[in-house]
Amino acid sequence: MADFYQNGIVTTLHNLSERPVEELEAELMSFADQRSMGLILPSLFSELEGEALPKIVEELKSVPYLSQIVIGLDRADEAQYKHALSFFKDLPQHHRVLWNDGPRLQALDKELAALGLAPKELGKGRNVWYCMGYVLATGKAESVALHDCDIVTYERDLLARLIYPVANPRFNYEFCKGYYARVANGKMNGRVARLLVTPLLKALKRVTDQNAYLDYMDSFKYSLAGEFSFRRDVLSDIRIPSDWGLEIGVLSEMHRNYASNRLCQVDIAKTYDHKHQDLSLDCTDGGLSKMSIDITKSLFRKLATQGETFNTEGFRSLKATYYRIALDFVEAYHNDALMNGLTLDVHLEEKAVEMFAQNIMTAGQSFLDNPMETPFIPSWNRVVSAMPDVMERLKEAVELDQQEFGG
Q1: Is residue 5 part of a domain?
Q2: Of 136, 159, 302, 325, which is the most exposed, with the fewest CB atoms less than 10 Å away?
Q3: 102: which DSSP letter?
Q4: Containing domain of residue 124, as a range?
Q5: Cα–Cα dist 402/407, whole Å
Q6: Which Gene3D superfamilies match (predicted)?
């Protein structure tokens, strides 16, 4: 049973009663006339061949309230795009697959790049951005959820609970962040959130001036969750990063654009497990190591926009403060795991903390070397102002791909 504690300045919606999914879905159906609902699924082609996505699609077939599903497909050639169309064809909801590597969307991307408006990096951020643009272009959904395609413990109540806060007409939330316990197979997971983000936010609070942004970020139970939902108007003005800082960047944008009473977080799953990244102790170009650097830089960039001044000595103090706090957290997590009959490798946890501490310095030096770096993809409002017909052209490209290859 969850607690009912409200922590921080963002409303927390708990799972206090284990409502049947059918009851939630009946309510969502009653909301659909006022707030039509859609879902974005950013996917790699390889995920179509994994164990998680086929089960997700089977669950989605039984979801009655969605008016639109938008699948962003990355790293797919023509044959793989055709396979994807077949893979998703049994979804009863209106759905489209954005072939991001196809010639039509690539041509549009090149035109945007010539204007300095295209995403500069491949990856989830770019995929999500184009999906958001397509949702705006079609106008089929007023409330939109987004979740990953590698959730091996997926059940459809996750989606129902995720989209409910922005779909209920009696609520005024513009954005909702999902959270859950990262526990699976008798182990406590979520190391980057537990061992980097939470202690780093605590350390930043100690070494910087009082900052409302840090209080806001520290209000989220699981800031790195890849599951969130929006009202459609949010999609027009949000700028998202194209690197591993996507989740932190989205939260930062919501803090920039909206009052905290328009935002919430919701408990969406009892258990949650997905594809795990390598720790990458000896390599900063991949795995959790690169993720930690990108996330840390995104926090530094946000604080710099609020007037915080950083230098090498300050980063050294931050590293030392973080390290002590993080080690204390390791002990707390170890005790929590033992009491719940879970396993937790203290040695590996402390090795991760050591890596994250070093990466704070790496991220700090990268920030100092290139303080004007702007990894954010432009908002769709800006893109439309530069290319007024971009929405129609995006929608047309997706439809032509569907007609040509969909059979």
Answers
A1: no
A2: 325
A3: S
A4: 11-405
A5: 8
A6: Spore Coat Polysaccharide Biosynthesis Protein SpsA, Chain A
Q: Which two tokens stand for residue 153?
A: 């413990």
Pairing relation of β-strands 11-13 and 263-269?
parallel
- Does residue 3 lie within any of the structural domains? no
Residues 14-47: tens digit of each pLDDT: 999 889 999 999 999 999 999 999 999 999 999 9
Which whole-number Å values give the CA distances from 135 to 31, 35, 213, 294, 387, in the listed order?
19, 14, 29, 27, 17
Q: How much of the chain is helix, strand and coil, in % rounded to 5? A: 50, 15, 35
81-115 pLDDT tens trace: 999 999 999 999 999 999 999 999 999 999 999 99
Asked if residue 296 belongs to a domain, the reply is: yes
Q: Which residue, 263, 273, 246, 277, is CA-closest to 376?
A: 246
* Percent of the chain whose predicted confidence (pLDDT) is above 90: 80
Residue 28 CA to chain centroid, in angstroms? 23
Is 319 a member of any domain?
Answer: yes
Instruction: Name the phi and psi angles at 146, rounded to 5.
Output: -140, 130
**Residue 175: strand, helix, or coil:** strand
Amino acid identity for residue 189 in this structure: N
Which residue do the tokens 């497909």 mark?
Answer: 73
Q: Total structural domains in the chain?
A: 1
∠ CA(288), CA(289), CA(290), 5° rounding?
95
